Amino acid sequence: MLEGSFYTVLQSQAAAENYAALLSLNAAHPVFEGHFPGQPVVPGVCMMQTIQESLERCLQCKVQLQKANIMKFLVLIDPVVQPQVNVELKYALQPENTVKVTAAIKHEGTVFMKFQGTFKISN
């Protein structure tokens, strides 16, 4: 779980299959010691985990990635230069305990990551 150590949720709102949150990134997190020393970059796996945790927060249940149709990393995030990002989700519950999700991590017109895929709701 990255929330609370890698990032902190500053604001969030959920309404009608939409979720938006403003996150503060922790530039002092140990992951940046290896990725990369002197030039920190948010790892793609951390961006994906942030999307998953945001969906879990919204649905209030655990989910597991089932399929990623689109996963594009468009701009690197340096947590020193860009200490806050927005996560935006649109989702739709599907049969068989699945959730279709379209998500983006962005801030002030810059889109860092786009995602489209399916998660399975864990029982």
From TrEMBL:
The record's section on InterPro entries has: ApeI-like, HotDog_dom_sf
As one GO molecular function, the record gives: lyase activity
Record-linked Pfam families? ApeI-like
* Limits of the ApeI dehydratase-like domain: 14-91
Name of the protein in question: 3-hydroxyacyl-ACP dehydratase
Q: Which organism is it from?
A: Chitinophaga agrisoli
Upper lineage: Bacteria, Pseudomonadati, Bacteroidota, Chitinophagia, Chitinophagales
